[in-house]
Write a structure and sequence with these properties.
Radius of gyration of chain A: 13 Å
Distance between the termini of chain B: 37 Å
Helix content of chain A: under 10%
Number of helices of chain B: 0
Oligomer: heterodimer
Structural class of chain A: mainly beta
Helix content of chain B: under 10%
Largest sheet of chain A: 5 strands, mixed
Order of helices and strands of chain B: EEEEEEEEEEE
Number of helices of chain A: 0
Distance between the termini of chain A: 36 Å
Strand order of the largest sheet of chain A: 1-9-8-3-4
Shape of chain B: globular
Shape of chain A: globular
Structural class of chain B: mainly beta
Number of strands of chain B: 11
Radius of gyration of chain B: 13 Å
Chain lengths: 111, 117
């Protein structure tokens, strides 16, 4: 079963930052937080992952709270092409590699 | 970045026939591959995990005799839906993990849409 909770949908204005929250209150010490997104009728795309420190790459930033019970994915300047379903997943690094998807957040970026 | 392909991208078949879907890692060796299916408006559901040269491990509730998985090489895994029925109509997505490095990331294929008439 998925171990994360996300809002089912969010809207964001084009050019503004999109902040997508995720709760993972039962996360274990050796579990990482991963974010993927799925644009309609395509395979999921990896965005970013982290353990406890904040992470940033060319796509997004990941902010993990100090107690690791929640995190936020930030898309700094959302574009229409960022409209997708965003999945927050926790999994043990290198343990079988299974990614169990929850329901995700459907982000709509509007002009 | 690493690329995973699937073939076919879509297929329509008659009830009772079998359908094979291929998943290939194009520029890396995939020691582990995963198969998911996704119904409309729903999330991805993991069906099985396969390691090259080994039998697949199926998730609870997935019929292994109906969904045959073969991972015969480090770049190819196949999913065969046997005796397909309309309820098997779904979006099937494979994923591959690079066994030599970047093990934190799974690369997903574009998906195969199966319609059973």
């Amino acid at each position: 079963d998925a171990k994360t909770t996300q809002p089912p949908s969010m809207d964001c204005a084009e050019g503004r930052a999109a902040n997508l929250p995720c709760n993972h209150s039962t996360i274990s010490g050796n579990e990482y937080v991963y974010w993927y997104r799925q644009i309609h009728s395509q395979g999921p795309q990896y965005i970013i992952h982290g353990l406890k420190n904040n992470e940033t790459n060319e796509m997004a930033s990941l902010i993990i709270t100090e107690d690791r019970k929640s995190s936020t994915l930030i898309l700094p300047h959302a574009t229409l092409r960022d409209t997708a379903v965003y999945y927050c997943i926790v999994r043990v690094y290198n343990q079988g590699g299974k990614l169990i998807f929850g329901q995700g957040t459907e982000l709509s970026v509007k002009p | 970045g690493a690329v995973v392909s699937q073939h076919p991208s879509w297929v329509i078949c008659k009830s009772g026939t079998s359908v094979k879907i291929e998943c290939r890692s194009l520029d890396f060796q995939a020691t582990t591959m995963f198969w998911y299916r996704q119904f409309p408006k729903q999330s991805l559901m993991l069906m099985a995990t396969s390691n090259e040269g080994s039998k697949a491990t199926y998730e609870q509730g997935v019929e292994k005799d109906k969904f045959l998985i073969n991972h015969a090489s480090l770049t190819l895994s196949t999913l065969t839906v046997t005796s397909a029925h309309p309820e098997d109509s779904s979006f099937y997505i494979c994923s591959a993990r690079d066994g030599r490095g970047r093990t934190y990331e799974q690369f997903f294929g574009p998906g195969t849409r199966l319609t059973v008439l």
